């Protein structure tokens, strides 16, 4: 009789425990927050819903991390997301965002010094995308240029290179890529010239240099 009574009491205790844990799960699931699921796991670490609670926590943390990355919208924020959520739902999109931001930053740098060399280097690294199309168009325009700004001429190649470096540093934006055209017989002079450009651009660049009392001449390539 005592055994039956003990079994009955145990059954009641088990049913009450199950009822309590199920009620706690429904309450946590209704709240749907990280804190609620963590509280459930603390009280019921071995419950049948424990794995489900952990999955919910991971999903919520992943979504919050992604929302934070999108809000900041920087290279660093998306890299942080990948570091904290390497297997996150948005990992592929984060990689895409990083690639887009890196390409955009590289294009801004290329535009700041849009010489044929710089544009070609950009295209080698980023052959696809809107920026690549713009780079090709700009490169084609530069290559189609028939005029240069001649800045100086020297018998000494060393002197020509010295002036080239100085003019590139000071007037690189207007002259683009300043180069030294080596002397070829019968000409014995090394000529310092701008990159190829249109006639209007060459005249504009030379006019600016002349305002600063710099010698220059527009020549046909």
List the main descriptive attributes of the protein structure presented here.
9 helices; rod-shaped; alpha+beta; single chain; 4 strands; 9% strand; Alpha-Beta Plaits; 3 domains; 221 residues; four-stranded antiparallel β-sheet; 69% helix
Percent helix among the residues?
55-70%
Name the average pLDDT.
85
Main beta-sheet strand count, sense and barrel state: 4 strands, antiparallel
Morphology call? rod-shaped
Major sheet: arrangement of strands = 2-3-1-4
Alpha-beta content class: alpha+beta
- The radius of gyration over CA amounts to 35 Å
Distinct helical segment count: 9
**How many DSSP-defined strands?**
4
Q: From N to C, what is the helix and strand string?
A: HHHHHHHEHEEHE
Strand content: 5-15%
Total individual domains: 3
